[in-house]
Amino acid sequence: MASWLSERIPVSSQTLKELANEPVPIHMKQWWFCLGGTPAYLFLVQIITGILLAFYYQATPQAAWESVSFITNDVSFGWYIRSIHKWAATLMIATMILHQMRVYFTGAYRRPREINWVIGMAILLCTLLVGFTGYSLVFEQLSFWGATVASNICDAVPMVGAWSKRMLLAGEQYNPQTLPRLYILHAAVLPATIIALLGIHITLIRMHGVSEPEPPSKLGDLSTEGGASRRYFDFFPDHMMSEMMIGIGLMILLSFLATLFPSAMGPRADSLTTPEVIKPEWFFYVSFRWLKLFSLSFAVLSSGLIVLSMVLWPWFDSLLRRVTRNEDISVYIGIVATLLLIGLTVWEAVVAH
Amino acid sequence: MAHNENESQKQPNQGVSPIPEANADGKCRQHSGNSEVATLPRRTFIGTAGTLAMGCGVAAGYGTFGYCALRFLQPGEATENLGWQFVTHLNDLTDKNSYSYETSSGIKLVLARQPDSAIGFIALSSVCPHLGCQVFWEPANSRFFCPCHNGAFDSSGKATEGPPKAAKQSLKQYGLKVENDLVYVLAPMRNVTENSGQEGNEA
Which of A169, A272, A277 sits opposite B134 (nearest CB)? Predict the structure, then answer.
């Protein structure tokens, strides 16, 4: 039996072991450094729960809200699958931001890993778009006004704005063809893009090896565990075990959150009334507040520049370090940016308008 | 400094190189001052030209498909959604400063007195010019307020607060006409969230 199989699938267990056994630096034994695998695991959860939800969801203005309501109230465990999908989205974005902050503050994006930072940023932007298109599909009030506002933000972008708005909405304004577009972006185009980017992301990590903070002595006791020379451990099974523990922990957390705070249904979309208090999902609070503070063209242009500078940060960082002769300049900028981000998010969260 | 020296050492070496180098296109690069003219073997030329031609063919083929796909995704011209709709008799407006009206599809608009205009009134859309949310009238503050990004407008539709003020935007206007003392407005006929008559579906 074993020889029958090995003849048809000519892969030796030795090759598999070599492929899987990436030497993992010892600092990865700290949970803080395992954050990258968390959004990847949650992404898998999203794919599985997303496929399940797609069995019932209908992407037309007449049926969308009713079909989500049907999933939530009538389908067996519908509320559970939908709530897991929503909470995993929230945690995916949160852990992705944490992973990005870890990479940023440890300087892991520096040469030769600049390209992987750029790809990571692309994954983050795609994920935010998946989040946005996702809550547009429910066709509750927030879905409709979110899509309307976002498409008009697109419109304010110089040159390509009007075109991209038309492409997003399939017309000048929200119309019956809009929802299928948001759906196919959410369920096919963007996830496929994320899978491709994730493939490159992980391949580059494998090729470069996991970045190691320097000097290793700063890591304290961990680096001397099992003798000072043993600075690496096996990916399989050691690191795999850590990731599986994180995975089980996440499933428990997701089930808790889904049970205690299940996704509810907001009022059905109504193009004639904007609710008196309206807010996007929490990960857009920053840009929502930004739009309230500044005129549209300034808000759009400045947001674009901020995102662009984040994407190109590895090169800005080396430029800034050379100009200021301060090795930690990016850390200070990062602290200010993080405080600003948290400040604007909290501000938007606590006030009605 | 050390970097500069390195470069100046390399350059003369490159200049006297006697061997013509073929680059990716298979064409020969000739160094200036080099008397040897490189000859391109016919076989290589035909091979390269053939590859290029096939490459162009493949690119053109997939390019055509890409163009078709892009045109497929591009929405057609918007169908005309505006139509003249009866609002009220002119006499109803004489002693009023503003008059609220809801079209048959439920679209809200306000006729506001504007002495400069042809018929003394303008029809204000309730769509915020900032990012397209619906404004509502706040009687306490005598203003239209947009809940999305805190835009505010006075009773004549002029922006008084928020991003619309910064951009000097006013509430959009619909066309208005009077025929035989009857007032008509040129407003949207349909709205996309209409629930095809199944009201009361909200849980």
Answer: A272
pLDDT along chain A (353 residues), means of 10: 84 76 74 81 96 96 95 95 96 94 92 94 97 95 93 91 92 90 97 97 86 56 47 76 88 95 93 88 93 90 95 95 91 95 94 84
Contact A61 B150 (CB under 8 A): no
Give how far B54 is from chain A: nearest CA, Å. Answer: 28
Query: Which of A 122-181 lie inside 8 A of B, CB atoms?
Result: 144-145, 148-149, 151-153, 166-167, 169-178
DSSP string, A72-101: HHTSTTHHHHHHHHHHHHHHHHHHHHHHHH
The interface pTM score, or ipTM, of the predicted complex is 0.74
* CB within 8 Å of B47: residues ≥ 6 apart: B26
> Which of A274, A300, A347 should one mutate to test binding to chain B, selecting the residue with the greatest count of B CBs within 10 A?
A274
pTM, full prediction: 0.81
CA closest to B76 among chain A residues: A171
